[in-house]
Amino acid sequence: MNALSGSPMSPSKTTQTRQILALTVAGFIFQTTEFVPVGLLSDITTEFHMSVEGTGWMLTIYAWIVASLSLPLIILTRKIERKQLMIGVFILFIFSHIFSFCAGTFEQLLFSRIGVAVAHSLFWSMTANLAIRLVPPERKPFALSMIATGTSLALILGVPVGRILGQFFSWRVAFVAIAIMALLVLLALIRLLPVLPSTFKGSVRQVSELFRSRLLLLLYLFTFLVFVSHFTTYSYIEPFLKNVGHYAENSVTLFLLLFGVAAMVGSFLFSRICRYFSPKARFICFTGIVLCSMSLLPSLVSSVPLLFMLIMIWGSTRIMMMLCLQSAVLSTNDKGGDFVMAVFSSIVNIGIGGGALIGGNVIREYGLTNIAYVSVAIGAAAIFVLYLILSKSDGELS
């Protein structure tokens, strides 16, 4: 009997693939809504008569709400069957986007984004763990890379298409389009997902026991630094390309599209690279390449061919590094996957919000050109933490 669904037979490989595909599309929706403001930042700034760094607070507040609520919400919902919880998450998500569409002030838009952030907190706390529960162990890299493909497609299609809708109609249309897509995905999840009870066994007091692993704590610290480093620059990539690279609106949209293409390439390559390189080798290579890419951004931004190559390398290696982190974090505990991933999601979003905040301050004090250099400086601290991880892991990474 299949312990996950309670059915007399394990799902076929085709059924498993359809289930993972449904979660992949769901991940696409959630990743799109998190980062679509990056492509709409100028439009929102103009409508509400604000500065770029002032509007950037929308990214910071969203990320920090997710960070503060991920673990508390996953604890509060620890006894709820996961399919039912996913349905509730999508209902909240849809109505929050409708409110975003109707927002008459920047404050109302922020309020609507709080609802989206709550849904986001629960969704990403559950999804990676659910994906690997739906497949046998040998298909774990496939499941994780598929979820990453959904997030990559959000950068390829979601963010650029949201920007195009903002250009030709209104940034509001982008939000209502997300709500419609979410409704369709919800119907698919209702049909495809099996019954998935929570895997956490024990009391809330036992949650603290999940985090006694020094390796896990170091992985969390590394995650924080990596995401702060990346989003110090990426949160403001649209105004950076326009004002530093002097690219036209359509060119900026194409470069945002290229980031997504790069991420999808990285998602595709990840499960194949796993076969040939050890986790330690992957961490070292991906971290070094990402930091080198950001350090070269200011000097290469004016050259279209070199910027094209840089974005492909930066985007693909960043997504592979994130997959390495997810896999390593999940491997530290096989009984509290939802909980360790809730903390992982919190730390990721603290990093995203912190990066957006630091980037805004750098822009105000030193100008757009210098955000990439600050990103690299933060990344240097991540390298030291990575050294500690690799020296203490003793083959525990996976």
Report the end-to-end length measured between terminal Cα atoms. Answer: 28 Å
* Helix/sheet category: mainly alpha
Rg, please?
20 Å
Q: What's the story with the biggest beta sheet?
A: none
* Share of helical residues: over 70%
State the total count of DSSP E strands: 0
- Number of continuous helical runs: 14
The averaged pLDDT comes out at 78
* Overall spatial form: globular
Helix and strand run: HHHHHHHHHHHHHH
Range of strand content: under 5%
The unreliable regions are 1-9
Q: What does this molecule look like?
A:
With 398 residues, the protein is mainly α. It contains 14 helices and no strands. Helix 6 packs across helix 12 and helix 8 runs antiparallel to helix 14. The protein is globular. The chain starts with 12 loop residues before the first helix and ends in a 6-residue tail after the last helix.
In short:
The protein has 14 helices and no strands. The protein has 398 residues and is mostly helical.
List the helices and strands and how they pair.
Layout: H1 13-47, H2 52-55, H3 57-76, H4 82-102, H5 106-133, H6 140-168, H7 171-192, H8 214-234, H9 237-243, H10 249-273, H11 279-300, H12 304-331, H13 337-366, H14 371-392
Helix pairs in contact: 1-3, 1-5, 1-6, 1-7, 3-5, 3-13, 4-5, 4-7, 5-6, 5-13, 6-7, 6-10, 6-12, 8-12, 8-13, 8-14, 9-10, 10-12, 11-12, 11-14
What attributes characterize this protein structure?
398 residues; mainly alpha; 14 helices; disordered N terminus
